[in-house]
Amino acid sequence: MEKTIQVEGMTCEHCKSAVEGALNKLNGVNQATVDLEQGNVTVTFDENNIEIEQMNEAIEDQGYDVINK
């Protein structure tokens, strides 16, 4: 499954690396790709192994705000 999550506060390559790294570490996430211009991250994941709320928490743990929960 694929989901695009709007994230507020990402402005640079460090932000991109932090969010992608946090999501890609999660069991069930296949790939996370940040688009800084759009202010979002597209996540491909196995919906049987992870919930969207877990992904939102991983983003927020990095200091960013999830807009479309």
From TrEMBL:
GO biological process, one term: copper ion transport
Function: Chaperone that serves for the intracellular sequestration and transport of Cu(+). Delivers Cu(+) to the copper-exporting P-type ATPase A (CopA).
Lineage of origin: Bacteria, Bacillati, Bacillota, Bacilli, Bacillales
Subcellular location: Cytoplasm
NCBIfam families with a match to the protein in the record: chaper_CopZ_Bs (NF033795), copper ion binding protein (TIGR00003)
GO cellular component: cytoplasm
SUPFAM superfamilies registered for this protein in UniProt: HMA, heavy metal-associated domain
Domain HMA: 1-67
Highest rank taxon of the organism: Bacteria
Name of this protein: Copper chaperone CopZ
Keywords from the named record: Chaperone, Copper, Cytoplasm, Metal-binding
Single GO MF annotation: copper ion binding
Family matches, as InterPro entries: CopZ, Cu-bd, Heavy-metal-associated_CS, HMA_Cu_ion-bd, HMA_dom, HMA_dom_sf
